[in-house]
């Protein structure tokens, strides 16, 4: 992917890029809609990446070109970074522009030509937009002579918060911190146990192959968009519930205190709160199993997570439920939707020798319902973002 982005840069600009920076998409093993409630999440990075080939400009302008699956470049109108403001750029170009806006405010300004290529499935709930933002951040920092993990460089956690700010304040989507942190901080063969409130991270071993298992990702091809009103409504509902309870965030409700909290809330907020509190508990129990090497034991927790998202948080859809139910019927140890919901992808923990048969069952189920054929692939924990070497 890095070579592809570099080659396209040469074709478009007639010179080589100064470098290529890459950031992966992610799968969230468990811990959905807990990040903006100061809770726990457990993602891992995918081997699929967004690559940004970049070179500096001296005129303070940002010019971004993306190369689609068909190989045809699409160039956004160049913008002067100093003139960027929320709402000034729309569509896909708002994501890299927002990153440039934040970095400029943080003292890392400078014009750039960027060429973007990637293989993270778009709209699949696998965080392609955050991969684009993270790769853009690394590229713009790198052009200024700042590489992550250098002694004087901003920390990966700091860059993740800058990327979050660009999406919240510039793009206008109120996402949490899960996706940016996963893309920047995940490592090979581990899942990232992140306490969003404290920022503490633990890299937890997740070697499915040694356990004879695999994570099957099912891209349902159903529309997925974080900017849809459903995401905003649920986040607002969680914030309202916390306010009514006099809490900083729903993270502060313990398992033992859940019933009392629910009884103090209006009916429409109770399912949201129940999901967040029980999902946090499921993340913690999943980590306990993984620390002990009991990968197979997390299956029931994955399925319970999906049930909670379907019934309490109400963010599933026909395609996601069909993918999960069919995978379970085919012998998966557990399955759940992953990502923001309302479409996107599901994951299933399956015996390694049953990946093909499970995928075939899912494809047949979608065909029988007249639905678009799903995308299927197995996912292994992969490295986080960095400069191509």
Automatic annotation (TrEMBL):
Transmembrane segments: none annotated. Gene3D superfamilies: 3.30.230.10, GHMP kinase, C-terminal domain (3.30.70.890). The keyword Transferase applies. GO terms for biological process: galactose metabolic process. Pfam families: GalKase_gal_bdg, GHMP_kinases_C, GHMP_kinases_N. One of its GO terms (molecular function) is galactokinase activity. Residues 96-184 form the GHMP kinase N-terminal domain. GO terms for cellular component: cytosol. It is an enzyme of class 2 (transferase). Signal peptide: none annotated. InterPro entries: Galactokinase (IPR000705), Galactokinase_CS (IPR019741), GalKase_N (IPR019539), GHMP_kinase_C_dom (IPR013750), GHMP_kinase_C_sf (IPR036554), GHMP_kinase_N_dom (IPR006204), Mevalonate/galactokinase (IPR006206), Ribosomal_Su5_D2-typ_SF (IPR020568). Its EC number is 2.7.1.6. Residues 8-55 form the Galactokinase N-terminal domain. Coiled coil: none annotated. Keywords: ATP-binding, Carbohydrate metabolism, Galactose metabolism, Kinase, Magnesium, Metal-binding, Nucleotide-binding, Transferase. Residues 288-366 form the GHMP kinase C-terminal domain. Belongs to the GHMP kinase family. GalK subfamily. NCBIfam families: gal_kin. This is Galactokinase. It comes from Actinophytocola oryzae.
């Amino acid at each position: 992917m890095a070579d592809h982005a570099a080659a396209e840069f040469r074709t478009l600009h007639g010179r080589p890029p100064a470098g290529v920076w890459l950031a992966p998409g992610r799968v969230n093993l468990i811990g959905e809609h807990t990040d903006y409630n100061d809770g726990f999440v457990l993602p891992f990075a995918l081997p699929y990446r967004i690559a940004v080939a970049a070179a500096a400009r001296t005129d303070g302008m940002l010019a971004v070109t993306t190369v689609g699956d068909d190989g045809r470049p699409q160039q956004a109108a160049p913008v002067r970074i100093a003139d960027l403001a929320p709402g000034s750029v729309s569509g896909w170009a708002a994501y890299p522009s927002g990153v440039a806006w934040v970095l400029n405010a943080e003292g890392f300004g400078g014009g750039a030509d960027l060429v973007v290529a990637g293989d993270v499935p778009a709209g699949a709930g696998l965080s392609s937009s955050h991969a684009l933002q993270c790769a853009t951040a690394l590229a713009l920092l790198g052009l200024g002579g700042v590489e992550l993990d250098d002694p004087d460089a901003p920390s990966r956690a700091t860059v993740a918060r800058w990327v979050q700010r660009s999406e919240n304040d510039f793009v206008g989507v109120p996402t949490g911190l899960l996706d940016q942190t996963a893309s920047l901080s995940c490592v090979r063969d581990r899942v990232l146990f992140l306490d969003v409130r404290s920022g503490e991270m633990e890299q937890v071993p997740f070697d499915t192959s040694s356990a004879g298992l695999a994570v099957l990702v099912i891209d349902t091809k159903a529309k997925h968009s974080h900017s849809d009103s459903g995401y905003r409504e649920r986040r607002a509902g969680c914030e309202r519930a916390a306010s009514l309870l006099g809490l900083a965030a729903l993270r502060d409700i313990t398992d033992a205190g859940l019933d009392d909290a629910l009884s103090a809330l209006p009916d429409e907020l109770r399912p949201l709160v129940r999901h967040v509190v029980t999902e946090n508990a499921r993340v913690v129990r999943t980590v306990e199993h993984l620390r002990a090497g009991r990968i197979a034991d997390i299956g029931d927790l994955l399925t319970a997570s999906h049930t909670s998202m379907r019934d309490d948080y109400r963010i599933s859809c026909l395609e996601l439920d069909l993918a999960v139910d069919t995978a379970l019927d085919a012998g998966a140890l557990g399955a759940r939707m992953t990502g923001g919901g309302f479409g996107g992808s599901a994951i299933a923990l399956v015996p390694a020798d049953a990946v093909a048969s499970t995928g075939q069952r899912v494809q047949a189920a979608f065909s029988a319902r007249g639905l678009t054929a799903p995308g299927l692939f197995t996912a292994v924990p992969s490295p986080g973002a960095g400069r191509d070497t």
